[in-house]
Amino acid sequence: MSEIESIHIDGNWRVAQSGGTREILDPADATTLAVVAEGGLEDTDAAVAAARRAFDEGEWPRTPVAERAALLRRVADLLQRDREEIGLTESRDAGKTWEEGRVDVDDVTAAFRYFADLVTGESGGRVVDAGDPDVHSVVVHEPVGVCAMITPWNYPLLQASWKVAPALAAGNTFVIKPSEITPMTTVHLVKLLAEAGLPAGVANLVTGAGDPVGARLSEHPDVDLVSFTGGLVSGTKVAQAAAPGVKKVALELGGKNPNVVFADACATEEGFDTAVDQALNAAFIHSGQVCSAGARLIVEESVRERFVTEVAARAQRIRLGRGTEEGVECGPLVSAQQLAKTEAYVASALDEGAVLRSGGERPEPSDVRPADGYFYSPTVLDNCHRRMKVIREETFGPILTVETFRTEDEAVALANDTEYGLAGGVFSADTARARRVAARLRHGTVWINDFHPYLPQAEWGGFGKSGVGRELGPHGLAEYRETKHVYENLRPAPVRWFSG
Questions:
Q1: Are 404 and 480 part of one and the same domain?
Q2: For a disulfide at 154, which of 58, 159, 273, 289, Cβ 3.0-4.6 Å?
Q3: What CATH number should be reported for the domain holding residue 470?
Q4: Is residue 454 situated within a structural domain?
Q5: Which residues are the active-site ones (predicted)?
Q6: What is the C-alpha to C-alpha distance for residues 106 and 28, in angstroms, rounded to an integer?
Q7: Would you call 288 exposed, middle or buried from its count of C-beta atoms within 10 A (0-12, 13-18, 19+)?
């Protein structure tokens, strides 16, 4: 298979300066999808230098807002033009279903259009009343500068768009490093940016490993902001590397997300069916490889046995296979490493006393096609408690744990008993109770009687070890800006503070 020129610097596609390459594997059968450049320090420094020149000397930061917004809308149109191709690439690269890939493209399109509309609708700045008619005082926003973007493997294109769209809308330049195992749709996105007319040097891409590429971006003195989405351990390293330069850092570090189900949500057959269906959706979309996955089912004791029995029965019926095949509902895990990690979490849970209600193993070869991919059966673990490793840590696999509660206070305490605080769900037929519990949850997004939807106009991010900063919404744009106060004296005169 021929090598893809996956490094993009100053408007040019190239191979790695070292000549290094990496095979990108299809997680459905472990075959090679593509061979991409394995960038290193030299490529990273060259990309940052190009972004620095484009910001300091180029036209993009000084391009009128309306023109920047128009380019973002052209990119959105191109994304829709290539929807089927990009969705297929995302499916094959990350292991998700083709339909999930298509939905991702639609969500990315919406993000580009949202930030285009947001900056277009802004005024020229916030006028501040100085209390003096001879003073004109205004607060304006300017681009941060050169942005380093490090994105994860589970939603490669979506997470890239949450950074790229606001960064460009604000007038920044950037270097993006996608995950080394799922870079393909980011390469496609950068091609679309060039096709839309983005000036050379504004968007730069380096494919390669977190060390050295991500590490160098985090510490580089010519980088003004680092935006990272990924795991807690890597995010901590990014923050430490960025600290000596006192550069801006935005971190989205995942979550251990509770899904609280009250008995009253199950009082009717329709309510019961909805809550069960949403529990499956919360836990097993994209094989649980979602930072906001509702991996902790916290269910009221009076309905626990019926609820968990039905969840486990339906989990066993989830159809596994290659994401491009008709009827497949769940694809493989992204890599052999992630498969081994999932197996280890299940084993540790069983050792600590959890009760296996479904899954807990790789599917039989006769039950899934292709048979040699990184598949793991959707797993439900009952009788779990807070001291278990599988409850404390982000598993990022098709694992749903079950805890129970008797009172509202106990439900809230369990849901908040985590170092993370990204997202959570509350299911209740009692609107007052649902809103009351949602207000008490220490999580950045809380869904009531739903799980997983997000809006580009609403901020995304978490409390605690889920990170710092926000993506999407007005605050997602603000992450890529500096705030400046301009104070103008309209009638300057001597102050006479000093007698001389």
A1: no
A2: 289
A3: 3.40.605.10
A4: no
A5: 252
A6: 24
A7: buried
Instruction: Name the pairing type of β-strands 146-150 and 225-229.
Output: parallel
Is the bond leading into 152 cis (omega within 30 degrees of zero)?
no
C-beta of residue 353 within 8 angstroms of C-beta of residue 363: no
- Under 8 Å CB-to-CB from 460, ≥6 apart: which residues? 162, 252, 444, 445, 454, 470, 471, 472, 473, 476
Catalytic sites, residue numbers:
252
Structural tokens at position 126: 């916030």
Q: Tokens 């009692």 belong to which residue? A: 430
Residues 279-301 have pLDDT tens digits of 999 999 999 999 999 999 999 99
Helix (H, G, I), strand (E, B) or coil at 305: helix
The number of beta carbons lying within 10 Å of the beta carbon of residue 183 is 28
In a shared domain, residues 230 and 307: no
Nearest to 302 by CA among 383, 400, 405: 405
Residues 438 and 336 placed together within one structural domain of the fold:
yes
Q: 3-state SS of 317-349? A: CCCECCCCCCCCCECCCCCHHHHHHHHHHHHHH
Write the DSSP symbol of residue 362.
P
CB count, 10 Å around CB of 14?
15
Is the domain of 288 the same as that of 244? no
CA–CA distance, 390 with 301 (Å, rounded to integer):
21
3-state secondary structure of 426: strand
Domain that holds residue 302: 258-448
Instruction: Could you list the beta-strand ranges (E) of 85-134.
Output: 126-128
Neighbours of 442 (CB within 10 A): 17
pLDDT for position 113? 98
pLDDT digits (tens, 9 = 90+) for 437-459: 999 999 999 999 999 999 999 99
Whole-angstrom distance, CA of residue 214 vs CA of residue 111: 24
What is the reported pLDDT for 2?
57
For 61-78, write each residue's pLDDT tens digit: 999 999 999 999 999 999
Report yes or no on 493 lying in a domain.
no
Sheet containing 126-128, strands listed edge to edge, beginning at the edge strand earlier in sequence: 126-128, 135-143, 481-489
DSSP string, 28-74: TTTEEEEEEE---HHHHHHHHHHHHHHHHTSSGGGS-HHHHHHHHHH
SS3 484: strand
Task: Please give the Cα distance from 366 to 372 (Å, whole number).
Answer: 11
Read off the tokens for 202.
């504004």
Cα gap 285→412, rounded to integer Å: 25
Helix (H) or strand (E) holding 75: helix 65-81
Residue 67 neighbours by CB under 8 Å, 6+ apart: none
